[in-house]
TrEMBL record:
Alphabetical UniProt keywords: Oxidoreductase
Origin: domain of life: Bacteria
Matching Gene3D superfamilies: tm_1862 like domain (3.80.30.20)
NCBIfam families per record: PRK08207.1-4, rSAM_HemZ
Name of the gene: hemZ
InterPro entries: Coproporphyrinogen-III_oxidase, Elp3/MiaA/NifB-like_rSAM, HemZ, rSAM, rSAM_horseshoe, rSAM_sf
GO molecular function: 4 iron, 4 sulfur cluster binding; coproporphyrinogen dehydrogenase activity
Gene Ontology CC terms: cytoplasm
Biological process per Gene Ontology, one example term: porphyrin-containing compound biosynthetic process
Protein's name in the database: Oxygen-independent coproporphyrinogen-III oxidase 2
Length: 503
C-alpha cells in the first residue's frame, strides 16, 4: 500500500504518518512527494500562526474521497520542539480521521502510537487539570475512545492507591538487573537472551561484571543517601543461573545496596518453569524474595513447541505448586494473546487453566511482531489470528479478570502489536508490582545493571529523561562493564548532586 502525501514539506511528519498508517494496513509505504505509484493520495492544507489549522482530503483510485479538518490554538512560549509536537498532533488528527473513514476501522487509541498512554493522564493530574476536563482533552486532542479513557483512569487510580507518593519518588531510584541467559531462545523473543548450555565461561565472566556494577553503584547510592524503591531481576531468565550463583548475587545485593530491608519490593523473573528447582526457591526464600514470575504464555503444548519454549504445560503447573508450597506468596504469570495457531478456543482453555492456579497477578500481552525476532523473520510460518479474533480474546481477558477479582494496574503498548491493542497487567488488589508502575510511568530513575539493561535517568526537577544502555551481548559486556559503570556514575552525579545543591 503506497500512500502519497502532498502539502506537507517538513520531513519530520514522515515517521508519525508512517506509524499511524501501520495501524490500518500491513506493509505501508509513505511517499512525501509527487509520485504516480499510489493507492491512496492525501492532500493536506496546513496553516500555522497562533493557530494550527489543517485539512486533509483523501482520494483513492476508485475516485472515493474523504475529508477532515481540525483547528486549535497553539500555546504561547513553546519551544520549537513542543510547537512542532502540537502541529504534528493536529496533522495526525485529520489523517487518522480520513483513514478511519476510508477503512471503516476505528482506532480506539486514536492518534496515540506511543508506549505509555497512562503517562498522559498522570501529567494532567500533576498539572491540576480536573478529571472531566482531562478526559475531554484526551478525547478531543488525541481521539482516544471513551472505553480506553476509562481504562486509563482505572489504572491511574489504582497506581495512586498502591503508591500514594508516586509523584514524590523522584529522589529515590529503582534498580533493574539483567541476566541475559535462558535455557533456549523463544521464537518471538528480542530480549538479550542466550541459550545457557555450554556457556559457563561466559556466565562466570558476566557475573563477575555484574557483581562489580552492583558494588560500585551501591556504594555511590549509600554515600549519597539515595534510597532504592524497588529491585527487579529480569533478562533473559534470572533463574537460569545456578542456585549458588543466585545465592552469591543476592548476598551481594544485601551487602552493597543501601537499606535493602526497607526496599518496597524485590522481584525475580523465573519466567521459564524449566529453570525452577527447590534449591533455587530456597535461595529466594533465604533472601526474603517472595515476588516471582512464572510464565506459562499458553497452556497449549503445541503452541509452546512452535514458539521454542522447551517445557511442558505440566511443568508450569508443577513448578507453580512447588513455588507456592515453598512460601512464594506473590506469583505473577504472563499470558500472550494471539500466539501462532491460537484463537478464542485455545485462549479460553488457557483462562480455564489459570483459574485453577489463581496467581496474585496476571500480565496479558498481545503478541507483537518485533523486527528482530525469529517469528517476524519467518512470518509465513507463524499463522496468527485476525484483528477481530484478537479483540475478542482481549475482551475475554478483561471479563475473566474482572469476574475473578483482578484489577488492571498498568498498561503499555508496542509497535506492530496485533490489533493495535495493549498489554495489561492485572492484579488481585494489594499485590500489584510497584516496579511495573515505576517503569511505565517514568516518575523516577531506573538504573540498569547487567547485560542489555537500559537505564532511564529521570531528572528530579525537570522530569527530562536520559536513556543509557548497557551492551546486549555478554562478550561486549564483559569487555566493557567498568566503562559503562563509570558513565552511569557520572550521569547520576550530575543528576542528583546538582539537584541537592539546588535544593
Ligand atoms: S524465556 Fe523470555 S527472555 Fe528467554 S528466550 Fe523466552 S521470551 Fe526471551
Amino acid at each position: 500500500m503506497q500512500i502519497n502525501i502532498k502539502g506537507l514539506d517538513d520531513y519530520r511528519f514522515h515517521r508519525p504518518l508512517q506509524l499511524i498508517a501501520n495501524l490500518f494496513f500491513e506493509e505501508t509505504e509513505i511517499v512525501m512527494n509527487e509520485n504516480d505509484l499510489w493507492d491512496i493520495k492525501i492532500q493536506f492544507d496546513l496553516e500555522t500562526t497562533e493557530f494550527v489549522k489543517v485539512r486533509a482530503v483523501l482520494s483513492d483510485r476508485k475516485g472515493n474521497e474523504h475529508s477532515a479538518s481540525f483547528e486549535r490554538s497553539l500555546s504561547e512560549n513553546l519551544t520549537e520542539k513542543d510547537r512542532f509536537k502540537q502541529i504534528k498532533n493536529a496533522v495526525s488528527h485529520v489523517y487518522l480521521t480520513v483513514l478511519q473513514e476510508k477503512t471503516g476501522i476505528t482506532q480506539k487509541w486514536g492518534i496515540l502510537t506511543g508506549v505509555r498512554p497512562t503517562k498522559l493522564l498522570h501529567r494532567k493530574i500533576q498539572e491540576g487539570v480536573p478529571k472531566d476536563i482531562a478526559h475531554q482533552q484526551l478525547k478531543e486532542d488525541y481521539l482516544i475512545s471513551d472505553e480506553k479513557i476509562s481504562l486509563m483512569q482505572q489504572i491511574v487510580d489504582r497506581q495512586l492507591s498502591v503508591v500514594p507518593d508516586l509523584y514524590e519518588l523522584k529522589n529515590e531510584v529503582s534498580i533493574y538487573i539483567g541476566i541475559p541467559f535462558c535455557p533456549t531462545k523463544c521464537a518471538y523473543c528480542t530480549f538479550p537472551a542466550y541459550a545457557i548450555n555450554g556457556r559457563q565461561g561466559s556466565v562466570n565472566s558476566f557475573l563477575g561484571g555484574l557483581h562489580y556494577e552492583m558494588r560500585k553503584i551501591g556504594k555511590w547510592l549509600k554515600e549519597n543517601g539515595i534510597r532504592i524503591t524497588t529491585v527487579y531481576y529480569g533478562g533473559g531468565t534470572p533463574t537460569s543461573i545456578t542456585a549458588e550463583e543466585m545465592d552469591m548475587l543476592y548476598e551481594e545485593m544485601y551487602t552493597s545496596f543501601p537499606d535493602v530491608k526497607n526496599i518496597r519490593e524485590i522481584t525475580v523473573e523465573a519466567g521459564r518453569p524449566d529453570t525452577i528447582t527447590p534449591e533455587k526457591l530456597d535461595v529466594l526464600k533465604k533472601w526474603k524474595i517472595n515476588r516471582i514470575s512464572i510464565n506459562p504464555q499458553s497452556y497449549i503444548q503445541e503452541t509452546l513447541k512452535a514458539i521454542g519454549r522447551h517445557h511442558t504445560v505440566e511443568e508450569t503447573v508443577e513448578k507453580y505448586h512447588l513455588a507456592r508450597s515453598m512460601g512464594m506468596n506473590n506469583i505473577n504469570m504472563d499470558l500472550i494473546i494471539g500466539l501462532p495457531g491460537e484463537g478464542v478456543k485455545e485462549f479460553s482453555h488457557t483462562l480455564n487453566e489459570t483459574e485453577k492456579l489463581m496467581p496474585e497477578s496476571l500480565t496479558v500481552h498481545t503478541l507483537s511482531f518485533k523486527r528482530a525476532s525469529e517469528m517476524t523473520k519467518n512470518k509465513e510460518k507463524y499463522k496468527v489470528a485476525d484483528r477481530t479474533e484478537v479483540e475478542r480474546m482481549m475482551y475475554m481477558a478483561e471479563q475473566w479478570t474482572k469476574n475473578h477479582g483482578y484489577v488492571p494496574y498498568y498498561l503499555y503498548r508496542q509497535k506492530n502489536i496485533l490489533g493495535n491493542l495493549e498489554n495489561v497487567g492485572y492484579s488481585l488488589p494489594g499485590q500489584e508490582s510497584i516496579y511495573n508502575i515505576m517503569i511505565m510511568e517514568e516518575q523516577q530513575t531506573i538504573i540498569g545493571l547487567g547485560c542489555g539493561a537500559s537505564s532511564k535517568f529521570v531528572h528530579p526537577i525537570t522530569g527530562q529523561i536520559t536513556h543509557f544502555a548497557n551492551p546486549k551481548d555478554p562478550k561486549s559486556y564483559n569487555e566493557s562493564y567498568e566503562k559503562y559503570t563509570e558513565e552511569k556514575l557520572k550521569i547520576l552525579t550530575e543528576l542528583f548532586l546538582q539537584e541537592s545543591s539546588l535544593a
